[in-house]
Structure formats: structure tokens, C-alpha cells
Amino acid sequence: MYYVHPTAGEIYYLRMLLMFVSGATSFVDVRTFQDTVYETFREACEARGLLEGDNEWSLLFDEAVVSASSFQLRQLFVTIVIHCPVCNVRALFDKYWIYFTDDIHHGLRQALGNPRYTAPHEQLLTLLLRKLADTFANSGANIVDYDLPILSACGDEEFGNRLINDELRSEPVLLRAHAAVAVSQLNADQRFIFEKLTESALACSPGIFFMGDILIPSLMVGDCSHSLCVRVSRLWEFLDPQDDSRLLHTDLVLLDEEGNSIHAQVYPPLCQQLSALLDEGGVYNLKYFLVRKANRFYKPVENCNMISFTKWTTVEVVLQIPPAFPVCTYNLTPIEQLQPRVDYKEYFTDVLGVVSVISHVSSLRTRGRQAEVMKRTVTITNARDTGPTVDVVLWGERATTFPAEQIHRDSGSSPQIIIFVGTLVRSYADNVSLSGGSSCKWYINAPVPEVNALRASAETKHQPVIWDQGKAAAEGAVIAVPEHRKLKDIKYLHPFENKKKEWLVIVKILKIDRSWWYNACKKCLRTTKPHGDTYKCTNSSCDSIGSPTPSAFGHERHQLWRPAFGK
Description:
Layout: H1 10-18, H2 27-30, E1 32-33, E2 36-37, H3 41-47, H4 55-67, H5 70-83, H6 89-96, H7 102-112, H8 121-138, H9 162-168, H10 172-184, H11 188-203, E3 222-224, E4 228-240, E5 243-255, E6 261-266, H12 270-275, E7 283-287, E8 289-293, E9 305-308, E10 314-317, E11 349-358, E12 362-364, E13 373-381, E14 389-395, H13 397-401, H14 404-410, E15 417-428, E16 431-436, E17 441-444, H15 449-458, E18 466-467, H16 469-475, E19 483-484, H17 487-490, E20 503-504, E21 517-520, E22 528-531, E23 534-537, E24 545-546, E25 549-552, H18 554-560
Parallel strand pairs: 6-9, 11-18, 14-16, 19-20
Antiparallel strand pairs: 1-2, 3-8, 4-5, 4-7, 5-6, 7-10, 8-9, 11-13, 11-15, 12-13, 13-14, 15-16, 15-17, 21-25, 22-23, 23-24
Helix pairs in contact: 1-3
């Protein structure tokens, strides 16, 4: 018969009943006792007296001691004591503890080189309690909270066998010599952790020091219960483009201790719960999260997977961070290679350059949005006066938090090298630029090889950063925005008095009774007919050939007030 863990609930009680009920042909028969059908298997066990006192646990151990190892029996005992209702823990322990010591007895015989050695019960009990204390601790419990023998009641000196005690006792001098050799072989990160641990232990100061038990490349799609130690390299909020007060999700770029990166997302309402726990730049141990395939578009890092936080995700702050723990990640695209990435959607673009021009923050009102948005332009170049330049346009909060004054001041003594990450490549009037929204972040004069190499080439022609007042003034121009109106407000407006006026009207077409559009000639708006792969105007005086423009019939066209039509 298959083994069932005692914490399995009804399945465990079903298995217990199958040990006593014979001739059953259905689950109802199993739950029946003395012509009474009980609702659950547990109730049926209680009716049969199988759960009186600790009878069920005695039955469990009677069966387990036949085939389970001592290690498995100890694990089973701790699990039952912690998670199951045991009436008398001490009585259950006293009845079966000797079965928990087979491997301990075998270890003593090997240590002494005497296969016939029989250890006293007091010695076995003390060694067993030490192992049980570790098992309880690994399960998040303390052995002293349960009615078990006190570990200190049986000391090493009470065993009465000096030979055994000498074999089991570690030699302090040898241990000290071994420790000195081992410490000398530690690398920088290992030595840092060792020193922090010993310092905290000597000062009796608690803390979380250990890294996770898995790295980012080892993550597989599905639920993850492993502990992952990561730094929050970037953190930003993605708001609804039509409603800045509505948060859609929070995004993070996470780095592990080896520099591997992964994108993570948190959705409401967890965003508010985790915002107080996660800070950009902090290091955390994450557990109980979901690993899924990465988004198709706008990935901040190159990883085929990403992480989604769940309501079960736990976050623990790592207090002592190794100095070599990575801080940032990027995948640089040279400025001269930005043109092919215009409107590229799969990944964000990271770029490196020397800051040459900075504009002041200006307010801008664009079509489709009533509220003004802040904007700042930062011009960077590959190498001062010799390489191509590109404008990085920062929007909203990114424009106002950019340290322009500090960069302008520091540029008087040295070139300011900057890495922009999380940008999108755009093209306006045949000029390539970078757009930096909420996903954008910058690293100024970062101590990385790419920055050092660019600084070496830029220092020979160094000039301070320029404040571009003209660009700021031009950017501050307000573009007229059509006023929002309802269809009923503009339906009866005087057409002669409202020429060249625009309104923004959002309509929903509920029903179309007949064909209300046709392929029209772009020149004369007359009907067109197919002409090979293109269309030809039916107006003999026009006779134009090309792609048509979908247009509406007169009545609908008048009612819908010059909309943009499509098939």
C-alpha cells in the first residue's frame, strides 16, 4: 500500500480506514460503520475509535518503523508534533525514540572502529535530541516549546566513557588551525560575509546575511518556492496614458549576485502593499513568486522569462550587502546605429554618450491630452565635436528629476559621461531621437569600462555643458488642443460661423444599415474601380491612377462631421 503523509488530510484518514475495513466496494462503504454513513473519512475513523488519544499516531509509527530509516522517522515525528494534534507528545516520543537512533548508533560504531559497540541509552538520547533540535529549527520551530527531554539534562561528562568522549569531542587547537587555513582561501565576497557573520555573532546582533539558494538563469516557468537574492536595479510605475492617476503595474529590473538580470512586474493591489518594502537599489531575498514567459514588447533586459509577484510573495531585506554585488545592467547601442531601431518595440534601448547640451524644463500640451506635460532635452555625443549626436527627450517626472544643474556645474572640470537605459527610439522630421518616459533611468559617470573608455577620448576636447535657452523656448510652445465636445453640442452649429474650428468628439457606431463608404479618388473624390494592383478614377476628366481614399456618402458624411473613415 502506498505511503500517505499525515498532513494530507482526508487522504491520510482514507488510507487508515483501508487498513481496517474489508469488503468495501465504494467510498461510501469505507465511511460506513454500524449502519451509519459518515460525512468524512476522519469522522469514520473517530467512530471506529482509531483516533482516541494518540492511537492514530501509534498506528502510523507502528507501520513506519518497519520500512522507514531513522532519519525519515525523525522527520516524520517533527512534522506530526508541529502540524498535527498530538495529545501527549512525551508519551509518543518515549514509545518510539529508540527507533530514531539507528543511524546515530551506526555512526558511533564507525567512529570507534568497533562494530560490536553498544552505546548507553543516555548517550543515544542526548545525540538524538541534538539532531531533533536541528530538525525543529529547520522547520521554523523550537524543541523547547514541546514536552520533550531537556537537552542539557544529559551532558557529555555523564557518559562515563572517556574513550568515546575523546573521539566525539573536537580538538580546539586543530579546529583553530583549520579555520585559519580556510579563511586565507576565501575570496573577497566570502571574506566579507565571514567577517560580517563573526562580527554580528560576537556582538549578539541579529540580521539577514545569506544570499538566495538559486540564481536567475536557473529559474523555470511556473511557481518558484526558492529564495532568490536580487538587487532592485530599476523601479518604475506604468500609468494609464489616458489617466495619470490610474496605476496599471509596477515594473522592476532585478540583478542577482552574478549580474544576471530579469524583468519583474507587480499588479494592483499588490503595488501598494509592496511599495513600502521595495526601494530602488535595495537588495532583497524573494520567495514564492511566479516565473512566466517575458512580454512580447518593451522588454528592459534580454531574458526569455520574467517574474510576477503574487499575494504569497515574501520580501526580506538583506542588511549586509557584499561590495561586489552588481548595481546596474545595460545593453548599449552605439549612437550611429540608432536609426534601424526607430519604433523598435521588442526591447528598450540603452545608450552611452557625453552630455553636451541641456535644455531647461518646459511645459508642453499635446494633441489628445488636456493636461500639460513637462519636457527636457539632453543632447549627448559619442566623443566631443567628432561623433554623432542624439537628443534624449525626458518626459514628466523624468524631466524634472534630471540633475541638470549638477551636471552643468561638474562639466566645468571634466566631461560628464551618462548612460541612459529604458528609452525608445523615435524619428521626428527625419531626426532620430530618444524618448525617456517612466522606464528611463540614467547613470552618471558610472565606474564601468565603457564610461572610462569614452572619458579618455572626450577629455582631449572637453568643453562645459551648454544651456540651450532657444530649445527650451521652442519646446515651451503650446500646441492647440481640440476641445472635447459631445455630438449633440456640434450637430446644429452654424457651419459658416465655425469654419476651420476643431473639436474632439468620441462616438460609438451602434449600427450600419447599408454600405456607407466607397473607395474615392484622392483628387476629385469620385468613385474608383480596380486597375491591376491599384485603382483608377471613373471621372474621365481626372483619370487618376493610384491608391484610393475611403470616403463616406453625403448624408452620413454630413452627420458625422468630417471624420477619418476606414474600411
